[in-house]
precorrin-2 dehydrogenase (Dehalobacter restrictus), 442 residues
Amino acid sequence: MKMPVFWIIAGTTEGRELIDELRRSNAKVYVSVATDYGRELIEPYQNLHIQARRLDREEMIAFIREVQPDCVIDTTHPYARIVTDNICEACRETATDYIRLQREPGRLVSNNPSFNANILENMIYADNSEDAVRVLNDKTGNIFLSCGSKEIETFTGIKDYQERVFARVLPMQDVMEKCEKLGFKKSNISYMQGPFSKELNIAMLKASQARFLVTKDSGETGGFQEKIEAARELGITVILIRRPEQLEILKRSGKIDEKEDAQQHTFYNKEQILQKLARDYSLEQRPNQPWFPLFVSLQNKKIVVFGGGKIAARRIRTLLPFDANITVITPELVPELKQELAGNEKVTLLCRKYQEGDCNGADLVLAVTNETQVNRQIAEECTRYGIPVSVADRKELCTFYFPAVVRKGNMVIGLTASGEDHAKVKKTAEKLRLYMNERMEL
């Protein structure tokens, strides 16, 4: 059977998750990202080929003709309209199937079914960056930009922008040089990788004394809700740049001779994409390979645990006998565990939410919060620093699995089903504990 070939234009969390899901498949995957930084976020594997450079329409056409993918999967940012336009044109020109993995809109915008009209009190919609500038030039007060650096030069059109405008942008050399060249004050620019918690957004909005927040609908994975909620809590007006409307060209996407509705080519999560790839292009997911057990000393190693619920409590208790230095970061910790940890010199408790940089210097990290997005942020930070991380609710983000531990004296047994069957692991561990307690001597 022919190996399916896919070309993914990436640059978003959703794109990276889809690429990772295809790791255990029979597909050859070509990936295009815009920058070297984007390439660093994608873990390589055998049938994955990554190129880090921006392609124009003609280069896309040439690349499609060279690698002949079964389909092109567009996972670019919702606001990358020109890129999406070029991808669609290239697919039409080469009669190649097109699939759009579109990030869902935020829950706090009017085109979402769960939209709450009450949020409009402090929200102004703008069609684009230029429109936002026109709105702001009729206002007074400081402005906080959280809408990326791609169009930041547009905001130099704001009166007294050197004094009034504060911005948060990616920590990339070309972005830094761009901001400096445009005349923004160094003290007014924060170079940070998001998404960010509501608490951090509040702190930055307060520090800039902002009366206005300019942002885009980056969806849940882009931290959109946390930004809006921070602004609402502070009474700050939000200037929301609308998502570009779905391109007319999408109505003729897919093969060049098809004229189906755009919704037949647009999907909102990777599970829908994988189902289509399996149905239409013979994608096969290989069974999960077992992970090799490796026993190491944790004595005096720095382990950071994010979360304070029952799962986090079980894992902290499992770690305590191994003499590690454990830092627990959580707004709330189950009361009984808090009592157990009181006075333990090997444990540090920080009663707050995760913040960017918390993982730096750790030997192991456990992401066990009850917020999927926060767990993902922690995993991404660990990936950047090369820190082993176990993510409770996302096995594909784990670089190690936290095992069920059966222990008696110096006899230690670690159990995992390679992230597949936790109930089976739990039952097996219980049987082993019973066997060791009844039949094994220390």
Observations:
- The chain has four domains: 5-104+248-281, 117-241, 302-402, 405-442.
